[in-house]
Amino acid sequence: MKILITGATGFLGRDVASRLATEHEVTAAGGRAAPAGGIRLDLRDEGQLRSALAASAPDCVVHLAAYREPDVCEDAPEETRRLNTAPVAVMCGALPPAARLVFISTDYVFDGETPPYRENSPRRAVNVYGQSKIEAEDLALRRPGSLVVRIPLLVGAGPSFESSGFLAQIVRSLRDPSPQEADAVLRRFPTWIRDVAEAIAFLVGRGASGAVHYSGAEGLTRYEMVLQAAEVLGLPTDHIRPSARVVPRRAARPRDSQLATDRIRAMGFMRFTPFRDVVRSFAAEFAGR
Ligand SMILES: NC(=O)c1ccc[n+]([C@@H]2O[C@H](COP(=O)([O-])OP(=O)(O)OC[C@H]3O[C@@H](n4cnc5c(N)ncnc54)[C@H](OP(=O)(O)O)[C@@H]3O)[C@@H](O)[C@H]2O)c1
User: What domains lie within the chain, and their CATH numbers?
Assistant: First the structure.
């Protein structure tokens, strides 16, 4: 299959592009820069997007590019929709009917008050980021054959320690001996980017359509993740206390947006790497850092 992947330079996109390239003919697109052998494509520019679709003539578009920092999105709702929502409308209009659209969405389409959430649970976002994804999902799902994959908090190794997001933050706070607090309220389901890449390859290979949830299996607060990571890395935690108070931030966060994974399990996908093993792999990747 010829697959165009947007967001291929991102935290998740790098793994998705290299995984899909083992089976398919991939065109990888970055926003600010072209990845090796790929293209640069600013999705906010409708003309550029139409030209890229015409030039690559994909059988399938795996669309990951997005603004995904909720606080940044909250301050810039119009700009957020320019990237997170509008390009999906262009893709739906420009792609021939036989070409498939795979849209990567988030657990933040749910309000986090009544978990677990199934694929058909009512969506209600508590922030601009989640709302922009709901609007994009609606556009994608109106197109027959489209697939929407909802995923939660991603963990894993980026191209460098510094760009490894959540796990790098946790390791930094464990190594910093100053007294700190870690959120012990919001429940998250850390999910390994390599597992997500496998899940996407699996779903694309099956020709799945509609909404599908994929999520790590363990519900953990940030404090619990800190404890597990410390145990794996052999670091002390005496300087980190659990906080029963949610740190106020510009964008609201869902308390517990657990995604039920019965549908993908019933299809036969059973890879759910435990958080401790992800930390082990991260530590091996950045040994000595
Ligand atoms: N990270 C998470 O915890 C998480 C959780 C749930 C869902 N998701 C979803 O998973 C997807 C991937 O997330 P991620 O963590 O990999 O994000 P990321 O690391 O922030 O990567 C974002 C990607 O979007 C591209 N991009 C940014 N502006 C663009 C533009 N104007 N035109 C075209 N491309 C542009 C970036 O390219 P350049 O850097 O080259 O500009 C980059 O490749 C997103 O849809 C996100 O909503 C992520």
Answer: 2-153+192-217+258-273 (3.40.50.720)
